[in-house]
Amino acid sequence: xxxxxxxxxxxxxxxxxxxxxxxxxxxxxxxxxxxxxxxxxxxxxxxxxxxxxxxxxxxxxxxxxxxxxxxxxxxxxxxxxxxxxxxxxxxxxxxxxxxxxxxxxxxxxxxxxxxxxxxxxxxxxxxxxxxxxxxxxxxxxxxxxxxxxxxxxxxxxxxxxxxxxxxxxxxxxxxxxxxxxxxxxxxxxxxxxxxxxxxxxxxxxxxxxxxxxxxxxxxxxxxxxxxxxxxxxxxxxxxxxxxxxxxxxxxxxxxxxxxxxxxxxxxxxxxxxxxxxxxxxxxxxxxxxxxxxxxxxxxxxxxxxxxxxxxxxxxxxxxxxxxxxxxx
Length: 328
Ligand code: 8YV
Prior knowledge:
328 residues, Rossmann fold, binds 2-keto-D-gluconic acid, 2 domains, five-stranded parallel β-sheet, alpha/beta, globular, seven-stranded parallel β-sheet, 36% helix
């Protein structure tokens, strides 16, 4: 019997391609070309499985054009690129890559918080521009991090990682809001107190967004929410573009309605709202919160493990719709 056919949609570690090739007939995109939707469909049409990243949208139209597709394994914990209902209806299994990136991503969230609150990017640009000619008592004075109040919106694994860093490492008071409240043991571990979203926005000195993107979380932070925040507050987004209304955020930062922001994700990325690009009080990074080589390798291997398990007749490690889908 010929091996299942797999499409790897983006460039990935050669060692992971080699692993996949031991089990599958693999077509990959090691040149990392930007495929159009039509090009993606053309390549996926005859495949049994796909190794995707967060960039490829798998929806009803793609599924209808690819009748032999049985599984899509995302090399990302977020899976808003998948239309899970359409995949379930088509009998296609979806998997993501949770867990392996938790601590690395929480580290980066904290780095963005520190960089924004303590004005690291802005002051570094000033120094590089040759503008530093003397010390001044209030030069680039930022917001206190240790001992301040940290508000976390979205308290999954990564949110809990950020909470632990804040509470245990920086003596912060941690408040959080989530669709469902954590159990008492987890709350105690994170030293975090459950509050309403409004209370969080009003009381936090630093707000970190770690919630998944969906219709429900679209523009969860817009002009009204920004207006609730303290003028001295920092906003950090390591979740998804679209959760923040970037135009409203740029206006709030420009008018100093909040002090600073640290953003790793953007609406319509890799394009970035032009108003953000010209503001000094925002630290901008190109969706790299999980980007250490060990973590990215672990994410890629988990996606590969899911494909290998599935085609060996086993349940993948991190399925998203196994209970609902009558998988082909
Ligand atoms: C990925 C991410 O690098 O895992 C996620 O959800 O946002 C990042 O870690 C990105 O989605 C590419 O797959």
